[in-house]
Amino acid sequence: MSECEEATDRELAIDRRRHQRWVLITMIGLRFVTVLPIAVISSFFPQEVERWRPVSEASLYMDIITGVFGSTAILGSIASSQWVINDIGTRHLLCLTVFLLGMSTILFGCLDYTNSWPGFISLSVIIRLVQGFAYGLTDVIVYGLGTAASSEQMGLASGLLELSFAIGGASGPAIGGILHKVGGFGLPLFCDWWSDVGLYDGSGQSLVFVR
């Protein structure tokens, strides 16, 4: 093998490692922000429920909303099985799921404008159904892409992805509480949507060659 070919191979290897690192970093960021919709509302959603119902019932409705989200997230994870990814394509499916997650997050942030309790709780459940399903799809794809991008250090990649999930879940209530005090009900959710879009836009450059 000539020196020119060896230099080309080294450059390709460097580019490949850089590409893998960028995919892993963006997937870590996406996993962090996609868990925020679960966590950010826990600090202020019960207060919104208290506008309509007694204080003693606020935690019950919070549990219902959380349960709806978790149940449909499981269904979303099942739906993102290998045949779905093969039929639609990983990049296209990630685009679709981030779009659904973002739009449902925006709609949930607009619930503050409802003027009746039946409308508020009904829309909350419906939106969380869509949001949970989109989250289940997104989480499986993000985790798969993140670990596949670092196949030589899959244990480290898996640990970093789980760490970002844990940090997002732990910091979500604090972030939601601060943003709620600053801008009201919708601001925490609108900020989460912007972070979703920004990170997906960054990851899109690294997923150009991913089907």
CATH topology: Growth Hormone, Chain: A
SS elements, strand count: 0
Order of helices and strands: HHHHHHHH
Radius of gyration: 20 Å
**Arithmetic mean pLDDT:** 77
CATH architecture: Up-down Bundle
Query: What is the terminal-to-terminal distance?
Result: 32 Å
Q: Quick one: biggest sheet?
A: none
CATH class: Mainly Alpha
Approximately what portion of the residues adopt beta-strand conformation? under 5%
The CATH superfamily appears as MFS general substrate transporter like domains
Q: Tell me the helix content.
A: over 70%
Number of domains: 1
User: What are the low-pLDDT stretches, counting only 5+ consecutive residues below 50?
Assistant: none
| SS summary, helix count | 8
Summing up helix and strand content along with how strands pair, one would put the structural category as: mainly alpha
Shape annotation = elongated
